[in-house]
Design a protein that fits this description.
The structure is a homodimer of 617-residue chains.
Chain A (H helix, E strand, L loop, with lengths): L4 E4 L5 E6 L6 E7 L3 E4 L1 E3 L3 E6 L7 E6 L21 E2 L23 E4 L1 H4 L5 H4 L3 H7 L3 E4 L3 E2 L12 E5 L5 H14 L3 E6 L18 E7 L2 E4 L6 H19 L3 E4 L13 H16 L4 E4 L21 E3 L1 H11 L3 H4 L6 H9 L8 E2 L4 E2 L12 E4 L3 H5 L13 H12 L4 E5 L19 H15 L14 H5 L11 H19 L11 E6 L3 E7 L6 E7 L5 E4 L6 E6 L19 E3 L2 E4 L4 E6 L7
Parallel strand pairs in A: 9-10, 9-22, 10-13, 13-16, 16-17, 17-18, 18-21, 21-22
Antiparallel strand pairs in A: 1-2, 2-6, 3-4, 3-7, 5-6, 7-8, 11-12, 14-15, 19-20, 23-24, 24-25, 25-30, 26-29, 27-28, 27-30
Helix pairs in contact in A: 5-6, 7-9, 11-14
């Protein structure tokens, strides 16, 4: 119920509240501008509070539990000097929001662009993103998704080592910078989704142990002890994280949260943590009128994740559909089989389109067990699909993007497969123009032991997939610098062509009635041989029918079109204007008539449109 | 899919199948009557098989995985020489079942009698129980529930240290003995429920590690590593335990399983283990026509346990309702507050009657967290209630039954509270006549270290509740012998009176229309002061209304009866015939007229019946 943190009021007083249920005493140590110690007052639920009038907003402070030593605030809103130094009070009333007219966007209009703040621009800040919003908007992007921005050690990190879930990374521009970016995105009609991590806390700068039983002895995660969501004293831990979800909506106007690896959150309690988070967010939404989506990264293939609480589900609005990636990737990249031994059949892509999860109960070699449950019938807005994301790229020892693994035609067919899907598509920064910068794994810990462990761990993890001798050192600053994307090349040559291809597909997706319905009654597929797929998309009113034809193989595939209807060509990846070396003007595609059979060449992608209403299907 | 175990056929051949997914080789070592080694054949799913024609049914055997050493069969049906010695082939076709006409009983007619085979009779065998069935039937019992009978080390154990889930304890009489008991129970119109343990395996005689990855590294239980229900190779483990559930129904005609501590079974998989077990049992039931209830011991207070799979539940038919016990016990025993600090208010008993779980989301001191979810509206046949069970008695260092803690009137009101409840009642052996034998904790391990650990562990566990210096030693044979119940005293004095009281209440429960409906629309309560409770039970057709009046306090409670109706007295615990020293003939209660107010004395329990239809509620 109670919230931990600092609550700076318009009358310049500030309430400090910290949760430390096993501590007898708590001192608030103001260190700047004035050095002062204040004994805090215990409150029900294991909290300590101090209410300080006339507090300078630049105040830096520590907490001192049970007279041990000074620690930063676990619920700090800002760590201007990093994870080991004092916390800073933030006045959330001082920012001048201009997004009063922002009403959000419907889930089915989402086109997400995942970016890493540190490597999206040379500056590596929130503010440096703002000038690029117009460009993304023109492309057809409707939501940014920021990799985690919670304070992490040093100034280079993917963000999953954050140790202050409420503090906005200082080197990215801190709280003020993030607010400016969100306000700017809303001004451009774009939502902002934030990646947050509730399944573990980063190893460096993590002083949680001094405050309370944040960790469980019962469950283990790949990163060590699991967070305590269901044992003694878990109420405070649950509130700490659930309030964090509300915090981003309330103070930063964030439109959605992407919850990292929800399968590593263990909760046997009768009210599951995700149900609790959902309840809190709905209450906040009622108050503010702002919706905040909950998006899961889930390795469960369990429809429970996206089912409502009423029907025993976790109640997520959507989840990442990794199976779509795997099914598609292995079809276009020969080497994909090494990583995804259980994928590679064309009917798996069909299943990904028609049902969602590809693994829905069958034995999966990589897991050595039966895995998943059918998601057939679940509407498409509950799934987010992608051809690449930070993990699929960065969790390769050499950080190769798809553009570094497959050729131009494969990039085009992959983009087509993504953007005609009945799901919410997500791009990874630079994907739209085929950026060829690697996305390496990088850190900037200050703990030497930790640095060694990270390097060793990465090499061990990836040694199965090839030689790791030349692997970039995560801690080397050049590893980070080499990962900064090459935004400017998007204006030139094949990069411009690819970007135009994405833009064309996104416009079609936005405007064509047959691509609007994410209801699974309006989509079906036929496979043709080992490598061909025909995907039908029908509009809600059944007046419009699109047919996307794919050929992922090395031989031409012949499709016989359904009888009794005329088809026009809407898009053809083999048109001269979509070739990497095309030099002409703005590409245009005429709606040609199509005969009864269509030959689709290797890696060709075609969209046909029904021209009359005689189709019986 | 595949089942591990031995399958002796009517043609005297026998299929041996063992699961050992990481083993390269498996030898079947027949040790008697003939000594012979047979190399087994690997099968899909990590199994090895050998099909032996003309096998003597008395055959003893071991398995030898990867040429290490001989071990008994983890899926052994019989360990005639204990947990460390060879397994024995069992011919399940040889028993002559006489229960062809047995059709089971409806759940709402269940009155369960929990018993421990070793201490229910002097003999401590299945067969010795059979002569007592008639007596239990006359009392009103409709189902036996046997504490676990899976082979455990030595010959004295509660059963929760079993290391062979498929083998029937040799000292109880083995497979033949259990079949005779079940057949005898069915002949007496009684069902048999078996307590089974799938959350851990006993420490002694547990050779599972030699065969496969039965245990998980991710979760911990109070007894060590959790069973692997969701990680690599878990398919074989899931089948091992799920097939065990089917096994009892198929070969022993068991009518229900009581699943021990289901909250210690961890499964993140999309098809939860309980859903999987339910599927298998339903399939078996379709085949045989025999139903097998699934009853959970759950420490979750989560209605998901008893909700159907369709609505995201585990699909148990029923679960133990510990909260009913705690709520009632603390009201009748002053010392109860020590163990159940979160109980003791009369409205908690009201909530237990009306809704089920007493803790449904509130903060619980003993757990230091919010606990549970409401079970309001869930029909009563999904809950099993008791005033005592093996845990509530035996998990006291001195093993005191209720009869050793409270006086005769308190036993009577407790029986009344239990048997007018809208739930399935369960008695613990001897409870019906107020047996005063303790039910101690006893073991007969052969491992000295283990024996010391058990003694130390028990003392540590219970030291919070008083002096443990005189605690009986679990391993001492006299501890076991002192726990054998004093069945014969049921014929005499106060024991006979109490037994008659139970019998009277059970007859009323069976015959009175107002006690038939377990639907929560037909029950409600009013509390009167700190210690009085009025419980209304209405029949399905609303023609009959009972009113049970309780006084758990030291002062008389006056109840004003609803106006506009006449009430007759059905049962009064203060009648001379229900006094501990009553010497008269078979007791009889006249349906007296009752006036507008009723005074209920301390620990008095009264049942009134509505005499006309004018009541407005």
């Amino acid at each position: 119920m109670l919230e931990a943190g600092t609550f700076y009021r318009e009358n310049q007083s500030c309430l400090f509240r910290v949760w430390a249920p096993l501590c007898k005493q708590m001192v608030l140590h103001l260190v700047s501008p004035e050095d002062k110690e204040i004994e805090m007052t215990p409150q029900a639920g294991g909290y300590f509070v101090a209410d300080i009038p006339n507090l300078p907003v630049s105040t830096l402070y520590y907490y001192r539990p049970d007279n041990q030593q000074d620690y930063p605030d676990p619920a700090s809103h800002f760590q201007p000097e990093g994870v080991h130094r004092p916390s800073k009070v933030v006045n959330h009333h001082s920012f001048s929001w201009t997004d009063q007219a922002w009403r959000g966007i419907p889930a089915e209009s989402l086109v997400i662009y995942e970016l890493h703040v540190g490597t999206f621009t040379q500056e590596g800040t929130f503010e440096a993103i703002i000038p690029r919003l117009q460009d993304l908007k023109e492309l057809g992007i409707t939501a940014l998704q920021l990799m985690p921005v919670a304070q992490f050690p040093g100034n280079r990190n993917w963000g999953y080592d954050g140790a202050y879930p409420y503090a906005v990374q200082d080197s990215y521009g801190g709280p003020e910078g993030l607010k400016k970016l969100v306000d700017g995105a809303h001004a451009n009609g774009m939502a902002v989704i934030l990646d947050v991590v509730y399944n573990h806390l980063g190893p460096e700068g993590n002083y949680f142990h001094a405050f309370g039983p944040y960790f469980s002895e019962t469950y283990k995660t790949p990163w060590g002890k699991a967070v305590n969501f269901d044992e003694a004293y878990s109420d405070g831990v649950r509130d700490y994280f659930a309030n964090n979800a509300v915090f981003w909506s309330r103070y930063y106007h964030i439109d959605g949260l992407r919850l990292d690896a929800i399968h590593e959150i263990f909760d046997r309690g009768a009210v599951h943590f995700w149900e609790y988070v959902g309840q809190k967010l709905r209450r906040e939404s009622m108050r503010t009128g702002r919706k905040c989506w909950l998006i899961a990264e889930s390795d469960l293939n369990d429809p429970k994740v996206i089912r409502s609480n009423d029907t025993g589900g976790f109640g997520f609005d959507a989840q990442w559909l990794d199976d779509f990636h795997h099914a598609l990737y292995v079809l276009i990249h020969e080497g994909g089989k090494e990583r995804y031994a259980d994928f590679g059949a064309i009917h798996q892509l069909q299943k990904a389109y028609e049902a969602g999860y590809v693994h829905s109960g069958e034995f999966v070699k990589a897991r050595q067990r039966k895995f998943g449950k059918s998601s057939a019938g679940i509407s498409g807005e509950h799934f987010i699909v992608f051809n690449q994301n930070h993990d699929q790229i960065g969790n390769r020892i050499y950080g190769e993007r798809l553009s570094m693994l497959v050729d131009f035609d494969a990039l085009k067919i992959a983009a087509g497969a993504l953007l005609v899907s009945p799901y919410i598509p997500m791009l990874f920064m630079g994907e739209e123009y085929g950026d060829e910068t690697p996305f390496y794994y990088f850190v900037s810990h200050s703990d030497e032991e930790l640095i060694k462990m990270v390097c060793k761990g990465r090499k061990e993890e990836f040694s199965a997939f090839g030689n790791c001798d030349d692997a970039p050192e995560p801690h080397d600053i050049s590893t980070f610098k080499k990962s900064v994307i090459a935004w400017d090349i998007a204006r030139k040559g094949k990069h411009k062509i690819l970007r135009d291809w994405f833009k064309k597909l996104l416009r079609l997706r936005k405007t064509h009635p047959a691509l609007q319905s994410l209801n699974k009654n309006h989509i079906w597929c036929n496979v043709a041989g080992q490598n061909g797929l025909a995907l039908y998309r029908r509009s809600e009113g059944e007046q419009h029918l699109l047919l996307a034809l794919f050929n992922f193989g090395p031989e031409t595939v012949k499709y016989t079109l359904p009888a009794g209807t005329k088809w026009g060509m809407l898009l053809n990846s083999d048109d001269p204007c979509w070739q990497a070396d095309f030099n002409g003007a703005e590409p245009a595609t005429a709606a040609d008539d199509v005969k009864k059979t269509v030959s689709v060449k290797p890696l060709q992608f075609i969209i046909l449109e029904q021209q009359n209403q005689d189709i019986t299907n």
